[in-house]
């Protein structure tokens, strides 16, 4: 293939994610960990426009601080575009315009959403028609969260998080997010967890698995039951690195949240509310206390072409 088939460009929207449950196994010799996660895609999106170009270029803007996002070949979306081109033998390039709304280095998979959007956009732009299975295969080469950003909805992730099985989630779950100005590096959080686990009271125990009670709560569409069983093994490390997050967690839980937890590797905090009205009240309370607070809901669809 040598010619792009959609020269006017393609726009794709991909969601950020929350880890409703995240259990981390012990570290392997290669530095990676087995995990068991319940992912949910939520209504905070990244938008990516792909247009024909002779080279691979990227421009980044958004409603969040994007100063730390690389605008060269280190960008995960550019790597995704190159993978598609390599896969189909396309000799041209692509220009990606990324508009970010998911907090950067916030534990919500924003970079992974960009990569997922780039895969879907380039597939459409170049008329590749690779299909879902092939796009997921390419996504898994880019990072554990990229396949889920394509899938969306609610899913269970095992292995390194990229072995996905769809999970039934009835109804709607409402969340209030509190981003942080300080980002956290995912490798740094995992490394700190390993250090903390040298203490026997929080050492990893056995192979990670999602609590069946979490799956039952999702199937029932029951946020109260979900709140009782949601947890994140990375939270202890994130709070150790950024102790100021504890104060916000306590405020949210005292102000009506069913549960509060660190999202992924953090530092974004996610508060589960019983319904949209309760989420709005919590958002107002946290905003009045001086925090940025965003009301989102899930599950939502994965990366999709927007017309």
TrEMBL record:
Molecular function GO terms recorded: 4-(cytidine 5'-diphospho)-2-C-methyl-D-erythritol kinase activity; ATP binding
The keyword DNA damage is assigned to this record: no
Chain positions recorded as ATP binding sites: 103-113
Active-site residues from the entry: 17, 145
Catalytic reaction(s) noted: 4-CDP-2-C-methyl-D-erythritol + ATP = 4-CDP-2-C-methyl-D-erythritol 2-phosphate + ADP + H(+)
Residues covered by the GHMP kinase N-terminal domain: 75-153
Top enzyme category: transferase
Gene3D superfamilies: 3.30.230.10, GHMP kinase, C-terminal domain
A Gene Ontology biological process term: isopentenyl diphosphate biosynthetic process, methylerythritol 4-phosphate pathway
Residue span, GHMP kinase C-terminal domain: 215-283
ATP-binding listed as a keyword: yes
InterPro entries found in the cross-reference section: GHMP_kinase_C_dom (IPR013750), GHMP_kinase_C_sf (IPR036554), GHMP_kinase_N_dom (IPR006204), IspE (IPR004424), Ribosomal_Su5_D2-typ_SF (IPR020568), Ribsml_uS5_D2-typ_fold_subgr (IPR014721)
Keywords: ATP-binding, Isoprene biosynthesis, Kinase, Nucleotide-binding, Transferase
EC numbers on record: 2.7.1.148
Pathway: Isoprenoid biosynthesis; isopentenyl diphosphate biosynthesis via DXP pathway; isopentenyl diphosphate from 1-deoxy-D-xylulose 5-phosphate: step 3/6
The protein's role, per its UniProt record: Catalyzes the phosphorylation of the position 2 hydroxy group of 4-diphosphocytidyl-2C-methyl-D-erythritol.
PANTHER family reported for this sequence: 4-DIPHOSPHOCYTIDYL-2-C-METHYL-D-ERYTHRITOL KINASE, CHLOROPLASTIC
Family, similarity comment: Belongs to the GHMP kinase family. IspE subfamily.
Protein known as: 4-diphosphocytidyl-2-C-methyl-D-erythritol kinase
